[in-house]
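Dear V.,

Thank you for sending over the compound details. I've combined the ligand you provided, zinc ion, with the protein sequence from our construct and run the structure prediction for the complex. I'm sharing the raw inputs here so there's no ambiguity about protonation or stereochemistry in the SMILES, which I know was a concern on your side last time.
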Amino acid sequence: MSRYEAVIGLEVHVELKTETKIFCGCSTEFGQAPNTQVCPVCLGLPGSTGVLNKKVAELAARAGLALNCKIGAYTWFDRKNYYYPDLPKGFQISQVFRPIAYQGYLDIEVDGREKRINITRAHIEEDPGKLIHASGSIMTSRSSFVDYNRSGMPLIEIVSEPELRSGAEAKAYLEKLKAILEYTGVSDVKMEQGSLRCDANVSVRPVGTAALGTKTEIKNMNSFRAVQRAIECEVDRQIDVLEEGDSVVQETRAWDENKGITMSMRNKENPDYRCFIEQEVSPIELSDEWIKDLRATIPELPDARRKRLVAEHGLPDYDAGVITSSLALAEFFDATLEKFPEAKKISNWIMGELLRLLNARGMELSQSKITPAGLASLLELIEKGSISNKIGKEVFETMFEEGQEPAQIVKEKGLSQISDEGQLTRIIAEVIAKNPKSVEDFQAGKEKAIGFLVGQVMKATRGQANPGVVNTMLREKLAE
Ligand SMILES: [Zn+2]
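Below is the predicted structure of the protein with zinc ion bound, written out as structure tokens.
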């Protein structure tokens, strides 16, 4: 047992799913040519002032409600002053003093243990632009470019209390947060497109003490798995530093995915942002009535949906947890169930073949060609005995890649299960003739030998025979 415990808090920046930016009418569409979605407001040109996009306040409050936060009836924006080339105004408009949402929580589960993680605040702010370094890294580039398409994109920053104790808990927190924001339609939550970004504050302290150790802030993590690894690595590093009698330096560190280590980026001694109230953007006033109406539009969230799948469809809790971890999977499950009413069989295929193929190819469900109707037809073919489970997996993969109807794939590839007894009788006779030792074993009472013989018939039919039928026919033949 370690004598130390980790104290971890996460700051998650989430891009809100709006059509236009926070204070201007520029498009928020991802992946456009650099500096094509800009105007005087989001370029911060002198004399330009913007107006708050109402949708931003709505989505931020929506996220707050889904995260069990209190919603501020009267909140405003502040200026955070600092200089950087991606911030042309020289200040960022944020909510420093009064966040729109505060004092919430979400529940996580790690190794079967549930834990509540409190959320300090969720506040609205604008995203700065993006620096693009000529050779990939600021350290080695002779020049850098700035893309202001991202400047003025609406964000919420969700700050957790420092209540996470391991990299695994941090990963579980992020997965739950992502699911909730996806369910509520607040954000696309795509880490690879930067619509969800996470920084981790990490410190360690001797077990049983309450005072917080000196923390470091870890940046540059590009997946939830990377967050977990970076935290685990940083916790070990800090323990080593303390064990050697040194002290941890307060600084920002970058995660190096390839080397699997964190590296010092810069010392961070609480910068003074000289924050003051932003006078040019109106405050946000929300009536109790408006908040109540908004609350009524929050859909069923992952935990509730998981409980419902268990209660209504008799799914094991584990299956329900996997399926409800993403809205896309949960909706896929529901739509399949409408056409093929056997929940457990569907969850087996989702958790087995579907997730296996998605993970292996690093794809999202929406990128595959499989449809709920297609999976339902496939399960019917297996149910009727037209194809075996094994052939079903082969058909599934073709559906996943090419999107044809399962019946068509079975027909084109000649995969129909052989139930023609004449053909099977011939193959069984051949297998018996070729394997006298196994036949002898079986007749001497070795039950296992029948399994081998069934296997040989399956092999000879390239998996297209019905194993149950083969088993019965073999036994009949051997009993003659
Ligand atoms: Zn603009």
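A first observation: Residues 224-243 form the longest helix (20 residues).

Warm regards,
I. M.
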